[in-house]
Protein backbone atom coordinates (compact mmCIF):
# COMPACT_ATOMS: atom_id res chain seq x y z
CA UNK A 1 0.00 0.00 0.00
CA UNK A 2 1.26 3.46 -0.87
CA UNK A 3 2.40 5.68 2.01
CA UNK A 4 0.89 8.58 0.03
CA UNK A 5 -2.43 7.32 -1.37
CA UNK A 6 -3.78 10.84 -1.75
CA UNK A 7 -1.30 11.69 -4.53
CA UNK A 8 -1.34 8.45 -6.53
CA UNK A 9 -2.82 8.32 -10.05
CA UNK A 10 -5.84 6.10 -10.68
CA UNK A 11 -5.19 2.49 -11.66
CA UNK A 12 -6.41 3.18 -15.21
CA UNK A 13 -4.70 6.57 -15.58
CA UNK A 14 -5.36 7.74 -19.17
CA UNK A 15 -2.99 10.71 -19.33
CA UNK A 16 -0.31 9.08 -21.53
CA UNK A 17 -2.09 7.24 -24.38
CA UNK A 18 0.96 5.21 -25.43
CA UNK A 19 1.63 4.01 -21.90
CA UNK A 20 -2.06 3.27 -21.30
CA UNK A 21 -2.20 1.19 -24.50
CA UNK A 22 0.93 -0.72 -23.52
CA UNK A 23 -0.56 -1.34 -20.07
CA UNK A 24 -3.72 -2.80 -21.59
CA UNK A 25 -1.69 -4.99 -23.91
CA UNK A 26 0.27 -6.40 -20.99
CA UNK A 27 -2.88 -6.97 -18.96
CA UNK A 28 -3.99 -9.30 -21.71
CA UNK A 29 -0.66 -11.11 -21.86
CA UNK A 30 0.01 -11.20 -18.11
CA UNK A 31 -3.30 -10.85 -16.21
CA UNK A 32 -1.65 -11.82 -12.92
CA UNK A 33 0.82 -8.91 -13.04
CA UNK A 34 0.35 -5.50 -11.41
CA UNK A 35 0.12 -3.67 -14.79
CA UNK A 36 -0.82 -0.25 -13.39
CA UNK A 37 0.86 2.92 -12.14
CA UNK A 38 3.32 1.83 -9.46
CA UNK A 39 2.82 3.53 -6.09
CA UNK A 40 5.54 5.19 -4.08
CA UNK A 41 7.25 3.02 -1.48
CA UNK A 42 8.87 3.90 1.80
CA UNK A 43 8.68 6.03 4.90
CA UNK A 44 6.21 8.96 4.85
CA UNK A 45 8.44 10.72 7.38
CA UNK A 46 11.52 10.27 5.16
CA UNK A 47 14.38 12.75 5.08
CA UNK A 48 15.83 11.10 1.94
CA UNK A 49 13.98 10.75 -1.36
CA UNK A 50 15.08 8.42 -4.16
CA UNK A 51 14.03 9.70 -7.56
CA UNK A 52 13.75 6.72 -9.90
CA UNK A 53 13.07 6.50 -13.61
CA UNK A 54 10.06 4.26 -14.30
CA UNK A 55 8.82 0.75 -13.48
CA UNK A 56 10.73 -2.12 -15.05
CA UNK A 57 8.89 -4.73 -17.11
CA UNK A 58 9.79 -7.70 -14.89
CA UNK A 59 10.24 -5.63 -11.76
CA UNK A 60 7.75 -3.06 -10.51
CA UNK A 61 5.30 -3.44 -13.40
CA UNK A 62 5.02 -7.12 -12.50
CA UNK A 63 5.09 -6.87 -8.70
CA UNK A 64 3.62 -3.44 -7.98
CA UNK A 65 6.50 -2.24 -5.79
CA UNK A 66 9.41 -0.08 -6.98
CA UNK A 67 12.64 -1.95 -7.77
CA UNK A 68 11.09 -5.25 -6.68
CA UNK A 69 11.72 -8.37 -8.74
CA UNK A 70 14.42 -7.08 -11.09
CA UNK A 71 18.22 -6.86 -11.03
CA UNK A 72 18.38 -3.18 -10.08
CA UNK A 73 16.51 -3.74 -6.84
CA UNK A 74 19.07 -6.12 -5.37
CA UNK A 75 21.83 -3.50 -5.22
CA UNK A 76 19.44 -0.73 -4.15
CA UNK A 77 17.90 -2.60 -1.23
CA UNK A 78 21.21 -4.13 -0.13
CA UNK A 79 22.62 -0.60 -0.01
CA UNK A 80 19.65 0.62 2.02
CA UNK A 81 20.26 -2.20 4.48
CA UNK A 82 23.98 -1.46 4.77
CA UNK A 83 23.33 2.18 5.66
CA UNK A 84 20.50 1.56 8.10
CA UNK A 85 17.75 2.71 5.75
CA UNK A 86 15.92 -0.64 5.69
CA UNK A 87 15.11 -3.57 7.93
CA UNK A 88 13.85 -7.02 7.08
CA UNK A 89 14.86 -9.20 4.15
CA UNK A 90 14.44 -8.24 0.50
CA UNK A 91 13.01 -11.32 -1.22
CA UNK A 92 12.12 -9.71 -4.57
CA UNK A 93 8.40 -9.80 -3.84
CA UNK A 94 6.09 -7.14 -2.38
CA UNK A 95 4.89 -9.30 0.53
CA UNK A 96 8.35 -9.77 2.06
CA UNK A 97 9.16 -8.11 5.39
CA UNK A 98 11.33 -5.33 3.93
CA UNK A 99 10.63 -1.93 5.51
CA UNK A 100 12.29 1.38 4.66
CA UNK A 101 13.28 3.88 7.34
CA UNK A 102 14.00 7.52 6.60
CA UNK A 103 13.83 6.95 2.85
CA UNK A 104 11.11 6.84 0.21
CA UNK A 105 11.18 5.95 -3.51
CA UNK A 106 9.45 8.37 -5.91
CA UNK A 107 9.52 7.46 -9.60
CA UNK A 108 9.62 10.14 -12.30
CA UNK A 109 7.26 8.09 -14.46
CA UNK A 110 4.63 5.92 -12.80
CA UNK A 111 3.84 3.52 -15.67
CA UNK A 112 6.00 1.13 -17.67
CA UNK A 113 7.22 2.68 -20.95
CA UNK A 114 8.01 0.47 -23.96
CA UNK A 115 11.75 -0.33 -24.13
CA UNK A 116 12.08 1.46 -20.76
CA UNK A 117 12.16 4.77 -22.65
CA UNK A 118 9.49 7.34 -21.79
CA UNK A 119 9.10 10.23 -24.20
CA UNK A 120 9.78 13.81 -23.05
CA UNK A 121 6.03 14.46 -23.20
CA UNK A 122 5.29 11.44 -20.99
CA UNK A 123 7.90 12.52 -18.46
CA UNK A 124 6.37 16.01 -18.34
CA UNK A 125 2.82 14.64 -18.09
CA UNK A 126 3.72 12.42 -15.15
CA UNK A 127 5.79 15.02 -13.32
CA UNK A 128 2.85 16.44 -11.31
CA UNK A 129 2.50 13.09 -9.51
CA UNK A 130 6.13 13.33 -8.43
CA UNK A 131 5.71 17.01 -7.50
CA UNK A 132 2.58 16.33 -5.45
CA UNK A 133 4.31 13.48 -3.63
CA UNK A 134 7.29 15.68 -2.81
CA UNK A 135 4.95 18.41 -1.55
CA UNK A 136 3.40 15.85 0.80
CA UNK A 137 6.84 14.99 2.22
CA UNK A 138 7.99 18.12 4.07
CA UNK A 139 10.77 16.28 5.93
CA UNK A 140 12.73 15.42 2.78
CA UNK A 141 15.96 17.42 2.69
CA UNK A 142 18.11 15.25 0.39
CA UNK A 143 17.26 13.68 -2.96
CA UNK A 144 19.18 11.03 -4.89
CA UNK A 145 18.45 10.96 -8.62
CA UNK A 146 19.00 7.60 -10.29
CA UNK A 147 19.94 8.58 -13.83
CA UNK A 148 19.57 11.61 -16.03
CA UNK A 149 15.79 11.50 -16.49
CA UNK A 150 15.28 11.42 -12.73
CA UNK A 151 17.78 14.27 -12.38
CA UNK A 152 15.79 16.34 -14.87
CA UNK A 153 12.51 15.74 -13.07
CA UNK A 154 14.02 16.68 -9.72
CA UNK A 155 15.57 19.88 -11.07
CA UNK A 156 12.49 21.01 -13.00
CA UNK A 157 10.12 20.26 -10.13
CA UNK A 158 12.28 22.41 -7.85
CA UNK A 159 12.07 25.29 -10.32
CA UNK A 160 15.58 24.99 -11.70
CA UNK A 161 16.92 25.10 -15.27
CA UNK A 162 18.76 22.01 -16.47
CA UNK A 163 21.54 24.12 -17.95
CA UNK A 164 22.49 25.21 -14.44
CA UNK A 165 22.54 21.70 -12.98
CA UNK A 166 24.75 19.30 -14.89
CA UNK A 167 24.18 15.60 -14.29
CA UNK A 168 27.15 13.52 -13.18
CA UNK A 169 27.71 10.62 -10.83
CA UNK A 170 28.17 11.99 -7.30
CA UNK A 171 27.47 15.53 -8.52
CA UNK A 172 25.82 17.54 -5.77
CA UNK A 173 23.39 20.41 -6.31
CA UNK A 174 21.57 22.86 -4.08
CA UNK A 175 18.11 23.15 -5.62
CA UNK A 176 16.03 26.35 -5.63
CA UNK A 177 13.67 24.82 -3.05
CA UNK A 178 16.56 24.37 -0.60
CA UNK A 179 16.89 20.61 -0.93
CA UNK A 180 20.19 18.96 -1.87
CA UNK A 181 20.24 16.71 -4.95
CA UNK A 182 22.91 14.04 -5.40
CA UNK A 183 23.18 12.35 -8.79
CA UNK A 184 23.90 8.69 -9.35
CA UNK A 185 24.13 6.48 -12.39
CA UNK A 186 21.06 4.25 -12.42
CA UNK A 187 21.54 0.87 -10.75
CA UNK A 188 20.32 -0.94 -13.87
CA UNK A 189 21.61 -4.33 -14.94
CA UNK A 190 23.29 -2.72 -17.95
CA UNK A 191 25.18 -0.15 -15.88
CA UNK A 192 26.29 -2.77 -13.38
CA UNK A 193 27.32 -5.35 -15.97
CA UNK A 194 29.33 -2.86 -18.01
CA UNK A 195 31.09 -1.44 -14.95
CA UNK A 196 29.67 2.03 -15.48
CA UNK A 197 28.34 1.71 -11.95
CA UNK A 198 30.12 -0.36 -9.32
CA UNK A 199 28.86 -1.23 -5.86
CA UNK A 200 31.49 1.08 -4.38
CA UNK A 201 30.38 3.98 -6.59
CA UNK A 202 26.75 3.44 -5.62
CA UNK A 203 27.48 3.16 -1.93
CA UNK A 204 29.48 6.40 -2.08
CA UNK A 205 26.28 8.23 -3.04
CA UNK A 206 24.49 7.04 0.08
CA UNK A 207 27.48 7.63 2.32
CA UNK A 208 27.40 11.25 1.15
CA UNK A 209 23.64 11.49 1.61
CA UNK A 210 24.01 10.36 5.20
CA UNK A 211 26.63 13.06 5.78
CA UNK A 212 23.96 15.58 4.74
CA UNK A 213 21.23 14.09 6.89
CA UNK A 214 19.51 16.85 8.88
Overview of this protein structure:
It is built from seven helices and eight strands. It has helices spanning 17-29, 60-63, 71-82, 120-135, 148-157, 189-194, 199-211, and strands at 41-42, 48-52, 86-87, 99-100, 103-107, 142-146, 172-174, 180-184. Strands 1-5-2-6-8-7 form a six-stranded mixed beta sheet, sandwiched between helices. A two-stranded antiparallel sheet has the order 3-4.
Q: What is the distance, rounded to the nearest whole angstrom, between the alpha carbons of the first and last residues?
A: 27 Å
Sequence stretches where pLDDT stays below 50 over 5 or more residues: none
From the spread of the alpha carbons, the general shape counts as globular
**Radius of gyration over all CA atoms, rounded:** 16 Å
Average pLDDT, rounded to a whole number, is 97
Count of DSSP strands: 8
Q: Sheet bearing the most strands, described?
A: 6 strands, mixed
Total helical segments:
7
Strand order of the largest sheet: 1-5-2-6-8-7
Name the beta content range. Answer: 5-15%
The H/E string reads: HEEHHEEEHEHEEHH
Instruction: Give the helix proportion (percent range).
Output: 25-40%
What structural class do the secondary elements suggest? alpha/beta
Write the layout of secondary structure elements.
Layout: H1 17-29, E1 41-42, E2 48-52, H2 60-63, H3 71-82, E3 86-87, E4 99-100, E5 103-107, H4 120-135, E6 142-146, H5 148-157, E7 172-174, E8 180-184, H6 189-194, H7 199-211
Parallel strand pairs: 2-5, 2-6, 6-8
Antiparallel strand pairs: 1-5, 3-4, 7-8
